Please model this.
Amino acid sequence: MNSNAEKQNLGSVSLTQNPQQVTKAPNYAENFITLQTTSALPEKSSFTRLDDSSSRSLKKSSEVDIDIESDVGVSKPDPVLRRLSRHFSHHNSSSARPSFTPFSEIPGLQSHISQDGCIDWDGPDDLSNPMNMALWRKWTMTIILSMIAFCITFASSIFSTGLVSVADQFDVSREVSTLGISLFILGFGMGPLVWGPFSELYGRKLPIFFGFFVFCILQIPIAVAQNLETVMLIRFLGGVFGAAPLACISGALADVFDSVDRSVALVSFTATVFIGPAAGPIVGSFITASYLGWRWTAWVTAIVSFFFWAVGLFIVPETYAPIILQRQAKRLRHETKIWSIHSKMDEQHVTPRSMATKFLSRPIVMLVEEPILLLVTIYLATVYGILYLFFEAFPVAFGEVRGWKPTISSLPFIALSLGIVLGGMGATWTAKVHFRAKVESGTMTPEDRLPAMIVGGLLMPVGLFWFAWTSNPHIIWVPQVMSTTVIGAGIMLIFIQGITYIVDVYLIFSNSAVAANTMMRGIAASAFPLFATQMYHRLGVAWASSFLAFLTLALVPVPVGFYIYGARIRAMSKFPASGQSVR
Model:
């Protein structure tokens, strides 16, 4: 039968969107496809609507075909679209509804579309799946994202070197100028509550690079501000927008790495998050002491940040699987004119209320009701606060007590950074050797993260006591500086293992758990610098540092207790993700 005869004997079906029928959408194939036929279908059927293009030529037939020329607008239809005409057929001339051939049986169409039109990966080796990205590209992306995180955390502390200059220029006390650090860190804590839902709706790349771009722009007003209010406001906003990459990068790394390699990538990312604050005072002290002055700390931050923003914009791809599949579904709908093709994300009905519940109320509820989250968050917030307290403590310990110049008194941060690197190497070794064997045997549990955290918990008070009782100016400076390496290693082990423990415990609720943790860490880190100088002046370096050592020593039972009783506590959790093994 030639094509003309075929068209004379076949009805006409057009794939169009029917807005009147998309009120309840449990089945996309029924709600998005409108059939236009003649005698084979009832004239006033609930799923039949005649439009102008089909009503001009009603045919008498029990067969159903796709009117490709009418809907696509071409005289010679695409072969794939012609084969799609077999997707709809009638069992007999009296059939009232068409039967649906599975998408996987349609030649030329992707086999990863389910019968109801929901798109998924085309097998485990689908190259569009970010998990199958080339290894070199994954690590290039990791390095770029880590450098973006470095720029942001670098900006959080570089301002500390200009506190005296800022106080003198705007005629305020040093404590008031310290608000420039505290407000920035407070923005860190508040930002994830905004950027968390943003990343789930629009993917990873948009919030990372939008937030980072605004962060870069906000460095300029700081450099040219003529009053303290402007400086403080912009510092807070810089923290809020700078939190966007920090809130989304860990998710982007989780999108492309498996459970073992993800630990290594997260260690690299976390190391830069902590090395950034340690590097800020080193660079900033030399800039502030030079003819450039404190304003150039903002200019330097802006220049370096704009560079990595531009590089990352072209190198880092979108990694969030639901967004990638949604975009593929949209492309296929327009290419095939089959409007039933969709992704799982298209099936979700997201409202502002549901997002507010997930990212605002749920973190607070979890923080109050979950003992694991509450105690680990208190531990990490304390450690994070002590890190930022050092930006005020080091100038006292090495500048005032030992009489070093500001540029020289910032150099012990190099030893602190070395400790952070060593701690990261220890965490990497643990992930590669210990965790890999556990994962392969299927016996990995969240509590397996805690031994390394306990080691870090012991290293930190040891380092603080060491720092305290070698601070006497009559004792050579070497042991006191070496102690900061031990402190840095302890901070890194506590933080990276604590965060991964929270993620492993709460699994699908980990976004809310980490958001609660980030908020509390931001509050603690913004508060600690405000009383650091007064504490070190009144108690002295030895007893002030000893107080911090006793504080961290009192928190060591937290990971020890969860290592012993964690499984029982998880079993009683109100959140269903608790109590499951990590596979």
